[in-house]
């Protein structure tokens, strides 16, 4: 029998197993949703924006011209490499592990007053810097771990670029993004001999995960399990070589269809031999007939 299915036969298979296909597709969707929701750990993302803009001191005029802006845009590609360098991320790792103390009062120099005779009189004594321990969370992250977390993105012809950090902890992602931006801003003057970077937006902890995509996993589970179920049923139909209709007999063997015999159920304990009860009834019937004939003869 030819195993090539026509579209009509294919549609017949779908109709025949429609509810099974729907049921398995729903099972697949539930499985995909469960994996995305309860098996895969969610990943959170935070970003801080930075602006590359040459200050007035770096140009001959107070207003930066178009060429300066284009030069700043071209520098973004260089800044991307500098941010993920071991120099910057190494400092970030140290500061995350040992947060700087909070400055309560800045140090002040002593103030003296010069009298008419030339002597100096102390007006305000010097004040030492007063600090308190930082309330920032300490993180133990290596440079390689930071490199795997940090990505840089920018738009074409834009002087703004973003430092994106992904982590399983939303607070960690925000803290790392802010620390990378602060360290890079401090170091850019030593790298490029100019200070043309400023922080536009600080990163904030985002409670909404960016991955896994629950809708995508649900759709993938529905399509995959539904497709595999349909494929199994299709192969099963192709592998079935039994004759299902009289037309197939005519096509395969070239015989003329003379009729159809209905299904006959098998009869249990069928036997052509007469039973003992039947023999007794026959003998009794034969005896009654002989008696009747004898009475007729006597009359």
Automatic annotation (TrEMBL):
Pathway: Capsule biogenesis; capsule polysaccharide biosynthesis. Keywords: Capsule biogenesis/degradation, Cell membrane, Exopolysaccharide synthesis, Membrane, Transmembrane, Transmembrane helix. Its main location: membrane. It is a multi-pass membrane protein. Residues 277-299 are annotated as: Disordered. Residues 5-96 form the Polysaccharide chain length determinant N-terminal domain. Pfam families: Wzz. It is found in: Cell membrane. The chain crosses the membrane at residues 18-40, 216-235. Residues 277-291 have a biased composition (Polar residues). Required for CpsD phosphorylation. Involved in the regulation of capsular polysaccharide biosynthesis. May be part of a complex that directs the coordinated polymerization and export to the cell surface of the capsular polysaccharide. Belongs to the CpsC/CapA family. This is Capsular polysaccharide biosynthesis protein CpsC. It comes from Leuconostoc pseudomesenteroides.
């Amino acid at each position: 029998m030819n195993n090539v299915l026509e579209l009509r036969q294919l549609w017949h298979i779908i109709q025949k197993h429609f509810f099974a296909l729907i049921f398995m597709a729903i099972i697949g969707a539930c499985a995909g949703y469960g994996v995305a929701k309860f098996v895969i750990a969610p990943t959170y993302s935070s970003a801080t924006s930075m602006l590359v803009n040459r200050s007035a001191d770096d140009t001959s005029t107070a207003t930066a011209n178009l060429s300066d802006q284009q030069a700043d845009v071209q520098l973004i590609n260089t800044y991307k490499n500098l941010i993920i360098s071991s120099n910057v991320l190494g400092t970030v790792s140290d500061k995350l592990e040992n947060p700087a103390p909070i400055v309560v009062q800045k140090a002040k120099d002593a103030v003296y007053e010069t009298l008419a005779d030339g002597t100096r009189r102390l007006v305000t004594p010097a004040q030492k810097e007063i600090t308190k321990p930082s309330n920032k969370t300490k993180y133990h992250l290596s440079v390689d771990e930071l490199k795997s977390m940090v990505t840089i993105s920018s738009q074409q012809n834009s002087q703004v670029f973003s430092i994106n950090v992904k982590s399983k902890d939303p607070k960690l992602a925000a803290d790392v993004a802010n620390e990378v931006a602060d360290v890079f801003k401090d170091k850019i003057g030593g790298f490029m001999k100019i200070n043309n970077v400023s922080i536009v937006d600080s990163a904030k902890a985002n409670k909404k995960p960016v991955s896994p995509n629950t809708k995508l996993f649900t759709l993938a589970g529905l399509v995959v399990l539904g497709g595999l179920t349909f494929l199994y049923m299709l192969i099963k139909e192709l592998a079935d070589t039994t004759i299902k209709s009289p037309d197939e007999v005519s096509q395969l063997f070239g015989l003329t269809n003379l009729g159809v015999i209905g299904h006959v159920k098998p009869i249990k304990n069928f036997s052509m031999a007469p039973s003992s009860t039947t023999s007794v009834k026959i003998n009794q019937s034969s005896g009654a007939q002989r008696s009747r004939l004898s009475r007729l003869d006597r009359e």
